[in-house]
Amino acid sequence: MLDHHRRQIAFRVIHDTDRAFLRQVYAATREWEFTLTVWPEDEKRDFLQRQFEAQDLHYARAFPGAVRRIITLDGTDIGRLYIDRRDEVLHIIELSLLPAWQRRGIGTDILRSLLNEAHGGKVPVRLKVERTSPALRLYQRHGFRQTGSEGHHLSLEWRPDTRPREL
């Protein structure tokens, strides 16, 4: 059965009141890492809060001109997208969806839109992903290639000339 309801993906400006939601998205993206740990919930929550704050500070310093938005679907906050557009590259700093909204094609739609933008500007798209992250397969399916590694992260790049045919 075809779904004739066209979902409305949008991006809204982040406000100070959104910090709790952003922490929630961050924690959800790290949840899979804790499947084999026995940390008490309060320790895990405190750790994730400190990690979120450190990441947020790093992003602000490393990408001061980045566009940071909350992803919404039909008006519901479902994730975050941080991108840094430069003349020579489009850098995806963060593309994260809450687990309830994953595996529905939303991340794929957003990624394809960004790849189309980069293709039109004839610039590569770069990002970093944890080597054990489930998102790695999504990026590989869309033609990203590994260009380096640092610690637990892989550096990936997509070039306009490696654009998959189905886009």
Automatic annotation (TrEMBL):
Gene3D superfamilies on file: 3.40.630.30
Alphabetical keyword list: Acyltransferase, Transferase
EC number: 2.3.1.-
SUPFAM superfamilies with a match to the protein in the record: Acyl-CoA N-acyltransferases (Nat)
PROSITE patterns xrefs: GNAT
Keyword check for Metal-binding: no
GO molecular function: acyltransferase activity, transferring groups other than amino-acyl groups
Superkingdom assignment: Bacteria
Name assigned to this protein: Acetyltransferase, GNAT family
